[in-house]
Amino acid sequence: MGGRETDVVLLDENGIRSDGRKVNETRKVTIKVGVLKNADGSAYIEFGGNKILAGVFGPRDVHPKHMSNPDTGILRVRYHMEPFSVSERKNPAPSRREIEISKVLKEALEPAVILEKFPRTAIDVYLEVLQADGGTRCAALDAASVALADAGIPMRDMVCSCAAGKAADALILDVNNEEDQAGQADMPIGYMPNLGKITLLQLDGVLTTDEFKKCIELGLEGCKQVYEIQKNALREKYFSSGDNN
Amino acid sequence: MTNLSIIDKLKRSKILDLLQEGKRIDDRALDEPRPLVIDTGVIPHANGSARARLGDTEVVSGIKVQPDKPFPDMGDKGIFICTAEILPLAHPSAETGPPQPNVIEIARVVDRGIRESGMIDLSQMVLQKDKSVIGVFADNVVTDHDGNLFDACSYAAVAAIITSKIPKWEMKDDKPVLIEDQASDTPITTIPISVTMGLMGEFIIVDPNLDEWECLDARITITTNSDGNIVALQKGGSDGFSLEQLVKCSELSIVVGKKIRDIIKQATEGSK
């Protein structure tokens, strides 16, 4: 981590973090399904202070055509941050960071989506970060999975995601922005609970091998909590007694 | 792996058949990286340089050191920037043009390993707080592509940094002025070593060559420091790892990383 100097106490003497959470507690997560009219599937997630919209189109024709594959469909993911999503205005053009995250998220979703069913087509996932508060890639991945399910795309499992890390020498679940800036490690994890596969994994910061294993295990607990919220959000739309669809 | 050509599919089944027998297509053990050869000081115009040859993958890394403005929120530290490029002569499929996502990923993974390990003590590189600092630029060019560019670029960059010298500047009228012939060694705190492993079926292979690389299910790059701690990690590819596989990869990264670190230490010793 940057190890930047800060006045914030990341962990007080009672083991409470700067935003009042315990070490093994995630921020509040709410997901709404089907929030966009034009997209084939969509979701809106609030993950702590993160506010992210996900829209899915497809399977549809591939443009440019040379990208299409006669054996399988292709998945394309664009992760993008709005200029107003962070404290200092961000240039709206895609940065190297956003290009890398787009690629990593694509590869985190690919194991879940049954693309072989749709040769010569593309499934496009657009992730728009309206407000960023640390852990946007995890929250974006959570919303993307739900939006893919909402679009009726066949999947092996949903990918759920949550970060774990280390701050003030303690392993913590769901690293927030302050902990990301001043903490010791941040490890975003994406997981398919029914298949037991970890599909997103990145780390920056220093961990011993023992901490590394514990950190993944802690992160997987957070992922499983998010998984329940994802399923409930889909139930809310498709099985509620209301008049949605 | 959804984008394999017919040739790759045939190769994949051949490689998998061999793995069932515990063999690899180039006769290596599963946990054996290709031979690594490091030459340092190959570009005298650079402040530090190295050529890394990992099997038939070759990367030249040049370090340029020059005064720059600090990052806005890091006025008390020098800056470090790492780039990568696959030159068009490196492979028939390599094209000129703006960097593609896979190349951006390589540069960022190499950058992260070096940055997060704190390899260079950037706090010693401040000329005037919040105004002027020393920047270290590590530019990696791939001249021959035979797979696993992550590690080849990382080894070249690390060796180049170890052998680099920092020229001396002094602030005069708010501008940095170069003092000739006063270069000093770059302050190095640790040697980060990345180890990239591929997952194919149930098998984990260290340092995949291009034939293997093109039909991997997934891959992971783990960077460790001299103390044997993990400092950075990146998963890629279109499949996932189980927890047990990841624990195995983390152990491999430390064992293999130690051997590679010794090679780089030995190669850079004379030129310091």
UniProtKB/TrEMBL annotation, chain A:
GO terms for molecular function: 3'-5'-RNA exonuclease activity; RNA binding. GO terms for biological process: gene expression; nuclear-transcribed mRNA catabolic process; rRNA catabolic process. It is found in: Cytoplasm. SUPFAM superfamilies: Ribonuclease PH domain 2-like (SSF55666), Ribosomal protein S5 domain 2-like (SSF54211). It comes from the Archaea. It is an enzyme of class 3 (hydrolase). Residues 25-154, 157-222 form the Exoribonuclease phosphorolytic domain. One of its GO terms (cellular component) is cytoplasmic exosome (RNase complex). InterPro entries: ExoRNase_PH_dom1, ExoRNase_PH_dom2, ExoRNase_PH_dom2_sf, PNPase/RNase_PH_dom_sf, Ribosomal_Su5_D2-typ_SF, RNase_PH, Rrp41. Keywords: Cytoplasm, Exonuclease, Exosome, Hydrolase, Nuclease. Belongs to the RNase PH family. Rrp41 subfamily. Catalytic component of the exosome, which is a complex involved in RNA degradation. Has 3'->5' exoribonuclease activity. Can also synthesize heteropolymeric RNA-tails. This is Exosome complex component Rrp41. The lineage of its organism: Archaea, Nitrososphaerota, Marine Group I.
From TrEMBL, chain B:
One of its GO terms (molecular function) is mRNA 3'-UTR AU-rich region binding. Its main location: cytoplasm. Residues 33-167, 191-253 form the Exoribonuclease phosphorolytic domain. Keywords: Cytoplasm, Exosome. It holds the Pfam family RNase_PH_C. It is found in: Cytoplasm. Belongs to the RNase PH family. Rrp42 subfamily. Component of the archaeal exosome complex. Forms a hexameric ring-like arrangement composed of 3 Rrp41-Rrp42 heterodimers. The hexameric ring associates with a trimer of Rrp4 and/or Csl4 subunits. Non-catalytic component of the exosome, which is a complex involved in RNA degradation. Contributes to the structuring of the Rrp41 active site. This is Exosome complex component Rrp42.
